[in-house]
Specification:
The chain is α/β, with parallel strands linked by helices. The protein has 2 domains: 262 residues, 3-Layer(aba) Sandwich (Aminopeptidase), CATH 3.40.630; 115 residues, Alpha-Beta Plaits (2-Layer Sandwich). 35% of the residues lie in helices and 25% in strands. The protein contains 11 helices and 16 strands. The chain has an 8-stranded mixed β-sheet, with helices on both faces. The longest helix is centred in the last third of the chain and has 21 residues. The radius of gyration is 24 Å and the shape is elongated. Nickel (II) ion binds next to loops.
Length: 388
Amino acid sequence: MPVKNRLAEMHTEITGWRRHLHQNPELMYEVHETAAFVAARLKEFGVTDITTGVGKTGVIAAIEGKTNTSGRTIGLRADMDALPIPEASGVDYASKTPGVMHACGHDGHTAMLLGAAKYLAETRNFDGRAVLIFQPAEEGGAGGKAMCDDGLMDRWGIQEVYGLHNMPGLPVGEFAIRPGALMASSDEFEITVTGKGGHAAAPHDAIDTTLVASQIVVSLHSIVSRNVDPVKRMVLTVGTFETDSTASNVIAHTARLQGTVRTLDPEYREQAEGWVRRVVENTAAAYGATAEVKWSPGYPVTVNDAASTDHAVEAARAVAAKVDAETAPIMPSEDFAYMLEERPGAYIFLGNGDTQMCHHPAYVFDDDAIPLGCSWFAELVERRMPAA
Ligand code: NI
């Protein structure tokens, strides 16, 4: 039996929690009912060390093994928040909140970590301490950072940290992971270009902001092609382009561009802001215009520690028939990256089968993946802190 027998027995119960959470999705930091549900279940399992309100609405549960001679503490993390997407999945347990949906499977992640909590609290078959992290606001609110800023790693003495995400397209029963960069950073920029508005027939009396901003867009696209080593990964996209001109015979005075830079290389991430500023400011100056760049850092690169990845692979191989230990990285970003900046650890993908991609209104979390995810969490604890 690859998955843990006890967790296979709990499959129906955990599925029930998952569907309850699915029907009652909450956004960002407003996961009050979800956090209360998590804390109530943990109490039922006999977990005594529960802390709520970490990183605003996060929940932490510490579970001691039968012994703790190892002095080791392993963190396991699940995200709890949903998305502002009207559900079109067609399931009979669909969201009861209009316009809000668990379209990324965080209901599944939370339920699976609860399942692991129940198992670990019952068995305590390890030598050390497991810290279960239920975080808010993964979807753009940097809840992982909020928990770290609230002292997560030091207050609970976490030495290694692990998390998982369901993956549509990967068969149920399989895991995928890689050491090093797994998911990209995501930073945003906003550029305001100021020229000199005027009459379309008198460009010599104006500074054509539309032309300047267009040159800026073209020049920005030289950053990835001319600054980044071709075998490394970075993408820059200008997503919006607006000017204040509303007529065909008016030269715009200002323009606003918004875009994003994503990369799998933390060093390029550091340099990207400087590259963008240099190109934007100097291109504007070349035309006698001015430009300002507002840079908004988003999630860092999700970087798996090599040794922790090995531990994650071993635990996955214990519960699943197939584990891809060298999967290709992907360009979405993930705020577990903040936890991985503070401690070594690893993030793994759990097969969700042939479903719509995450964030699609018809996405469905596959409950058949539950025993695998729960068992992976439990295996990590038992393997990293073997019973004395
Ligand atoms: Ni997600």
